Automatic annotation (TrEMBL):
Polar residues composition-biased segments: 14-24
Region Disordered: start-end pairs: 1-24
Originating organism: Brachionus calyciflorus
Protein name as annotated: Uncharacterized protein
């Protein structure tokens, strides 16, 4: 029974870790998209 509980705890921990990584990557992605949009606007302003 203890082994099963340990396995479940490890799975839960891995799931949390994966979720944290996903959230971190999503945040970085959103930041990069924002930077790209800002740069596109900056370039557009220079052209016109």
């Amino acid at each position: 029974m203890a082994i099963t509980s340990q396995r479940e705890a490890l799975k839960a921990n891995e799931s949390i870790s994966t979720t944290e990584q996903k959230n971190r990557l999503q945040s970085k992605f959103d930041g990069n998209v924002k930077k790209i949009r800002e740069l596109q606007l900056e370039v557009a302003e220079r052209i016109y």
